[in-house]
Design brief:
The chain is mostly helical. Helix content is 67%, strand content 5%.
Amino acid sequence: MAGSPTVTDADEERDATQLILQDIQSGIYAPGSWLKQIDLETRYGRGRNEIRRALDRLALKRVVEHVPNRGYHVYLSDGKQWEDIAEIRIMLETGIAAKVIARATSTDISVLKELADRFQGLLLSGTVLELYEANLAFHRAYVDLAGNAELHSVIAELRQRTSSAPVSQWHTRSRIEVSAAEHHHMVDAIEQKNESWLKTLIEQHIRQK
């Protein structure tokens, strides 16, 4: 069982699906680890039926995998799936580059700069989870500039299906530093209205090359 059961008032208002997903994304349950229903019931203070429904929902999203007669484990993606999803994300996130540049105001650019600075500032003292969340905040802000809420949901679901845990978000420490620089360059590209540069940066950022 991962960690001690700590159910807060805020948790009581969230369904089990959100709680399990949050723990998967925060690295408490690593890719490939088995999820015992009795442990989840104890951890979240929820009944067996609610936990089972939550696991079934996450299986539909391919966040977890159901193995008949054995149970559920956190989905463990292979390299091919990662490459396929990265390619889809690149198509989507470069596809909105022109729209983001056209819609971004000086205030929007300032917000992006602040989010890039926050990620940069966490390099020395932040935890992996803090870096992961700061990275997500930057990318949410970028996608939000396209003004398409459905696209935001699609990209969020794609993220859930690959490197769920923040410990697998970056291959090396130096890659985190490169990611921080790329955030700032992306803001510069938007401010300079340089669409081709922005698209190149997005592809490098997603592929981590």
